Structure formats: structure tokens, C-alpha cells
Amino acid sequence: MHFYIDSVEETQALASKMAPWLNPGMVILLDGPLGSGKTTFTQKVGKELGVKRAIKSPTYTIVKEYPLPNFKLIHIDAYRLEEGGADTIDFDSYLNEPSIIFIEWSEYLYDYLPLNRLRIKFVPQTDPNQREIILMVEGESTEQYQELLEKMEEI
């Protein structure tokens, strides 16, 4: 599924449309170069889910947790793990508790990722304000992710 956006506001609008269809247990991978909208997207989803405090990129802390009434929003930025260290994150604990997990720079956690997930690619265009945003389901048992995409098509 492809979306073409022309502004930060349109990125946020897309995140707002997705938020109601996210469920605990989902893992969302965010791919794209620095400044492509990954954290902006996560911030808006978090606000829509009810996170009250500021959502900042966990570039230096690697992981930030945002408790909500029935689950946690987990935001992982694996950029600093390019040289290694992914084994220092207790990734399984995040997968075994009710949470929605957003992962930036997921290629540095590849060996730890669950098979079933949603990948969102942020592809900058010639105009610096424009992006192509591509949503792809990965895995074999992906019913919840397929349902999310179907809901996104209806919007």
C-alpha cells in the first residue's frame, strides 16, 4: 500500500488514521533515512493512543516505554546499535507483554525481530517536503496486519 504525502501534517494525518487499528502484540518497523518522518509518525500515533508526555526519539537511550491503561507503547531507535549491542536489549520481554512496538533502524535488530510485522518505509522524494510512505505486511500469520491495511484502504 502506497501513500504520497506533501507535508509533516499529512504524515501526522496518516498516523492518526492508523492509530485506532493498532493492537497490543503488533510490531511496526519504520524504515527511512534520517529526517524522513519515522519519529514524527510514532509521536502522532502515541498521542492518538493516549500518551500524555512528550514522545522523543530514543536515539541515545535506545528504548522508551510509554505506559497506557491496557498496554505500553514501546519506541525503539536502534540507530546506535549499528556497531553491535542488540543483545543488550531484552527484546523478548517487550514481545511478551501487552505492547505495541515501533522500531526505527530495525535492520540492526534483525536477528531479534518477530516473523510477523508491519514495515513502513518512508521514501523521500525530489521535493524535500514530499514522501512516499509504503506499508507492507511481512510474515506468514499476519491476519491482524492484513486487517489493519484493509481498514487503511477504507479511509
- The overall pLDDT, averaged over residues, is 89
CATH topology: Rossmann fold
Q: Unreliable stretches, pLDDT < 50, 5 or more residues?
A: none
- Summarize the main sheet: 7 strands, mixed
- CATH-scheme architecture: 3-Layer(aba) Sandwich
The level of helicity is 25-40%
Query: What's the shape?
Result: globular
**Helical run tally:** 4
Write down how many β-strands occur, each being a DSSP E stretch of 2 or more residues.
Answer: 7
Order of helices and strands: EHEHEEHEEEH
- Any idea what the radius of gyration is? 15 Å
Q: Give the strand order of the largest sheet, numbering strands 1, 2, ... along the chain.
A: 1-7-6-2-5-4-3
CATH class descriptor: Alpha Beta
Number of domains: 1
* Ends apart, CA distance between termini: 13 Å
- CATH homology-level superfamily: P-loop containing nucleotide triphosphate hydrolases
InterPro entries: P-loop_NTPase (IPR027417), T6A_TsaE (IPR003442)
GO cellular component, one term: cytoplasm
Pfam family, one: TsaE
Subcellular location: Cytoplasm
